[in-house]
Amino acid sequence: MIAIRLAESIGKGVFLSGSVVYFTLRVGLDATQVGLGLSAAGLSAFISSVVFGVIADRVGPRRLLIMLFAALTVGFGLYAVVGTAIQFFALVVAVGFLEYGTGPANGALVGNLVPAEERVKLKAMMRSVFNIGFSIGIGVAAVAALSQRLLVLIPLTTAALMACAALLVTRLPDVPSRPVPVGFKRFAAVRDPRFLAVIGISSVLASHVTVILVTMPLWALNHTSLPHFLIPLLLIFNTAFVILFQVRASRGADTVEGAGRLARRSGYWLAGGCAVIAVTALGDNDMLASVAIVAAVLILSTAEVMQAASGWGLAFGLAPEHAQGEYLGAFDLHVITQNVVGPALLSGLVITFGFWGWLGIAAAALVASALIIPAAHRSRVTLAPEPATATG
């Protein structure tokens, strides 16, 4: 499973880091068209993650994952022959829709094949491997971007790696789907307000994604005197931090109680990181800005590994064994929401309000920290299995 994750992550690293260059220089699209297409693909995740989670429970996650990786092989390969904006829009949405389906299918596969006490640890290992593979993919994309003729290697390399992932999935054992209790209704995950509350609170705790990748760099570039070359280096540091400490941070998150406590602590670290960045709004001191931003990245990276591990623990712990794909796919919405809504919301907040904007994000993190444990407890009570009753 780690080999599958490595192949997938290298492919995503190649494509995501090189796609803008490929579509602008080789296909001839402008920046607006590329941005709209990628945004539309991201929006499709709100439907894809839940739908493919339900399908994984119906047909089996192993079979679904093979089909998805095979379809992605074709989809990424077709990018090599895209020549118009219409073709690009149709293909990027279709590929994005399929790509976001691999998450719940992969999670359900872990749930089927791995004992409950080892699932979070394996997910942590897979995330560390993902960061390694993604970094390798960026290097491959950089080589392909050296020449106009080599650009076609960006989609073709990704397609080859998706095919490799599909072949690796076939090497895994096929576990029969668990029987569905009498009276269970599909799409129950997105109709349960208590489970949705856990997802919503987790969306706030996952703000570290947007802060590290978007909001903090924008703030540092436009409102501090931090040398610009340091910003990419800080992101590299964040990646290395996740690789080194994600597995360690996952300890104790294999139960709902432990995951809830870890989620609460992640909110404290998130609030602390935002408060440290807020200090840079109080003055224009080069040394203060540099020290504050570097310290904030360290603090936010700690929040990231904690929140990621807690998210897996909550997702697996709150998902019924017979509907893991559905519930894991629904829980993925907390990261999808942050990826889609977060950049505009949080960046607009700090750019408009500065110091108070950063404190606003910190306050939201503290509120979420206070709410996550009781919300997880209520959701767990709601999802507790009840004896099946015979139907006439």
UniProtKB/TrEMBL annotation:
It is found in: Cell membrane. GO terms for cellular component: plasma membrane. It is a multi-pass membrane protein. Residues 1-380 form the Major facilitator superfamily (MFS) profile domain. Keywords: Cell membrane, Membrane, Transmembrane, Transmembrane helix, Transport. One of its GO terms (molecular function) is transmembrane transporter activity. The keyword tRNA processing does not apply. This is Major facilitator superfamily (MFS) profile domain-containing protein. It holds the Pfam family MFS_1. It comes from Couchioplanes caeruleus subsp. caeruleus. The chain crosses the membrane at residues 35-56, 128-146, 152-169, 195-220, 226-245, 266-283, 355-373. The keyword Magnesium does not apply. Coiled coil: none annotated. InterPro entries: MFS, MFS_dom, MFS_trans_sf, MFS_Transporters. Gene3D superfamilies: MFS general substrate transporter like domains. Its main location: membrane.
